[in-house]
């Protein structure tokens, strides 16, 4: 098994382990965050209906200029602050 496939299998196991415990409802949806090397993707999910209530990402035009994420951010130790600002803008 190559490294890429091993990483995908590990992510799937982690996702399944969390989803066994965490369930989103309409009153309290589940927040999922995916961070790639260039962008952040966030969703609020209602598991009872199986629907995504809200989705946002740094690819969308509304947030593209507001959030500086990727490339130089890791060097200066700012990703946590950037993620917090992104979540505040989302809510």
Describe the structure.
Helices cover 38% and strands 22% of the residues. With 91 residues, the chain is α+β, with helices and mostly antiparallel strands. The longest helix is centred in the first third of the chain and has 19 residues, at 3-21.
Quickly list its features.
single chain; 91 residues; alpha+beta; Nucleotidyltransferase, domain 5; three-stranded antiparallel sheet; flat
**Average of per-residue pLDDT values:** 78
C-alpha Rg (nearest Å): 15 Å
CATH architecture identity: 2-Layer Sandwich
**Count the helices. How many?**
3
Write the layout of secondary structure elements.
Elements lengths: L2 H19 L8 E6 L4 E7 L4 E7 L3 H4 L14 H12 L1
Antiparallel strand pairs: 1-2, 2-3
Would you kindly provide a brief summary of this structure?
The chain has 91 residues and is of the alpha+beta class. The chain has a single domain (3-90), classed as 2-Layer Sandwich (Nucleotidyltransferase, domain 5), CATH 3.30.420.
């Amino acid at each position: 098994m190559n490294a890429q496939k091993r990483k995908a299998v590990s992510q799937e196991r982690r996702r399944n382990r969390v989803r066994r415990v965490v369930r989103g409802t309409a009153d309290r949806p589940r927040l999922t965050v995916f961070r790639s090397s260039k962008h952040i993707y966030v969703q609020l999910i209602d598991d009872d209906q199986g629907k995504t209530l809200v989705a946002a990402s740094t690819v969308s035009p509304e947030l593209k200029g507001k959030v500086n994420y990727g490339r130089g951010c890791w060097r200066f130790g700012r990703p946590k602050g950037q993620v917090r600002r992104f979540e505040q803008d989302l809510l």
